[in-house]
Amino acid sequence: MQANTEKPNTVPAAVLERLKAAVGPKGYTTDPDEIAPLCQSWRDNWRGWVPMVVRPANTAEVAAVVAICAETGTPMVPQGGNTGLTGGSQPHDTGAEIILSTTRMNRVREIDTVNNTMTVDAGCILASLQDAASDADRLFPLSLAAEGSCQIGGNLSTNAGGTQVLRYGNARNLVLGLEVVLPDGRIWDGLRGLRKDNTGYDLKQLFIGAEGTLGIITAAVLKLFPKPTEIQTALVAVPDPAASLSLLSRATEAVGEQVTAFELIQRRAIDFVLSNVPGVPDPLEQSYPWYVLMEISGQGPPDSLRDTVEGLLGGGLEDGEVLDAVLAANRAQGQALWKIRESIPEAQNHEGQSVKHDVSVPLSRIAEFIERADQALAAAYPGVRCVAFGHIGDGNIHYNPAQPLGERVADFAKEYGAVNRIVHDLISELNGSISAEHGLGRLRRDEARRYKSDVEMDLMQTLKDALDPTNIMNPGKVV
Ligand SMILES: Cc1cc2nc3c(=O)[nH]c(=O)nc-3n(C[C@H](O)[C@H](O)[C@H](O)COP(=O)(O)OP(=O)(O)OC[C@H]3O[C@@H](n4cnc5c(N)ncnc54)[C@H](O)[C@@H]3O)c2cc1C
Q: How far is CA 219 from the centre of its chain?
């Protein structure tokens, strides 16, 4: 099929022909119906257009495509599962870019159960890697609600966090080696499965979290862990965020690193889920202002941690940190509790306009952040429905004020920048970050300039200029 002439297309036909030849007939599309969803973000807040999506089958084809783009000055947008939340994986609407999708690069190259590593192509879906590790009796712990669609190349490029960071670290901590196609088309083979390698700069760290602006990750060596044989999951009602942190201290003092996940959920978030996501019941008989979803896991026999968790909850109840709790009797019940947490982003989409924030502060400031942000927003926008939830164990909160009931979507949408200012100024005052795990993309690129020092911005720009001097690798994102 020919490129759609009604859509913008400023990539010369000769360049498109060379790209087609580099990847073969299965390796590209110019069909507008196939292209359209790839140019649109999950929340539909970013839309652009490209005349062609290339889908190379392997690293050599990626290198060939990038070399053509470098020679002809054609900008590229690397794309994995397109679940990113900051506009990083969508093109601009000029028609001057192409999307380079890793979808066809989905091979697990090697699993080494002695070294506890797996070497995988960038286009492997995260859930399929969890399954591959599990089949080898190992755990690959990266876990997030988009795991059925997002790809490991995208996870590494955004340095994804998710629900198990407390125990295993974020994506950056799970990588030993990378293979990258540089913006000039050269391949850097850094696929080393080494836990110790002090031979100069740790180059892989440049590309992790770079959101496709410094090169295209084509493969990675990932760390594997023993599969937990015992998992206890509890949903715990707490009076306030400060109490949740006391409970976290109690839990880590008792079981250390076995606290695998610790998620805060405000009651309003549960109300949004109950109203908008079918089949999710209220988890406790009574309603409470705040909840924690806590997971503790280890290597012992089934239920070997149950008494410990019951003891923790009992101690918390006596000291007023815990108001009520449900401890899952089995994995299915545990997963049902996780479903509540994982349904929150979707549920909030049905509640009109909200201004999403993905912020972090030191744990000791998190209760203060929520209280002060709630007060400032209520003063500025009477009736605003603030929702706080997320990875409180990592100091990371998704803080999403939703429009007051009865207000027009467009009216609250106009306040986007002003709401950002209130929240991000407070985050800056508390020494926090305006993007804990989602990245900058286009959504927070200019916002980051406001809060990062000139020296920090200068260093980032210096790296970009050194690796991508003609700015063809995901231009307009991050820096
Ligand atoms: C329901 C839902 C829940 C989510 N929960 C979380 C969460 O808990 N924690 C979290 O951190 N994120 C979360 N996200 C955000 C998103 O899933 C992650 O950012 C994910 O890592 C993106 O992976 P992807 O393959 O979809 O990347 P994409 O969206 O395709 O790309 C993301 C960025 O990486 C670049 N990129 C993609 N592949 C490559 C590559 N091979 N080489 C170089 N650059 C590349 C793109 O250009 C873009 O800038 C969630 C998203 C959704 C929709």
A: 19
**Does ligand 1 come within 6 angstroms of the Cβ of 42?**
yes
260 lines ligand 1 (CB under 6 A): no
Nearest CA to ligand 1 atom 20: 155
* 114 and 97 share one domain: no
Instruction: Kindly give the number of the ligand 1 atom that is closest to the alpha carbon of 144.
Output: 8
How many domains does the chain divide into?
4
**Mean pLDDT computed over every residue of the chain:** 96
Say what the pTM is: 0.95
Q: List pLDDT tens digits, range 60-106.
A: 999 999 999 999 999 999 999 999 999 999 999 999 999 999 999 99
pLDDT of residue 457: 97
Sign of the Cα torsion 305, 306, 307, 312 reads: positive
Q: Do 191 and 269 have their domain in common?
A: no
Cβ atoms 39, 91 nearer than 8 A: yes
**Position 141, amino acid:** P
Lookup result for tokens 């009477």? 382
Question: The CATH number of the domain where 436 resides is what?
Answer: 3.30.70.2740
Closest atom of ligand 1 to 437 CA is 11
Asked if 387 contacts 348 with a C-beta cutoff of 8 angstroms, the reply is: yes
HSE toward the beta carbon, residue 315, CA cutoff 13 A = 14
- Among 226, 243, 261, which residue terminates a domain? 226
Answer for the pair 197, 43: CB distance below 8 angstroms, yes or no. Answer: no
CA dihedral 95, 97, 98, 102 (to 10 degrees): -130
Residue 184 to residues 90, 203, 471: CA-CA distances in angstroms?
Answer: 22, 17, 11
